[in-house]
Specification:
Blueprint: E1 3-7, H1 15-31, E2 36-40, H2 47-56, H3 59-62, E3 67-70, E4 78-81
Parallel strand pairs: 1-2
Antiparallel strand pairs: 2-4, 3-4
Length: 85
């Protein structure tokens, strides 16, 4: 299964770049018909993970993917699943 991965560790404190990278990885998944995007906000205080989830919950973004899965084995990882027609 094809999968994209976005690791946010390096840019955790650069808000404008975080949103830009999230948009880019979602666009790439749609363009290339990728089924899963793995986003790694890291464990830390959980603030970056909350920010990523807020981003993904925006209506115009939510309409682009099928579902979000929070990894129950690794708190610092989120999977975004796509269904392509």
């Amino acid at each position: 299964m094809a999968k994209l991965k976005l690791d946010l560790h390096e840019i955790y404190n650069r808000n404008e770049i975080i949103e830009e990278q999230l948009n880019l990885v979602i666009e790439e998944a749609i363009e290339n018909r990728i089924k899963v995007v793995e986003i790694i906000p890291g464990k830390g205080s959980g603030q970056l993970k909350k920010r990523v989830l807020r981003f993904l919950n925006q209506k115009h973004i939510r309409d682009l993917y099928h579902r979000v899965e929070k990894d129950d084995k690794n708190f610092g990882r989120i999977f975004v699943h796509f269904r392509h027609k």
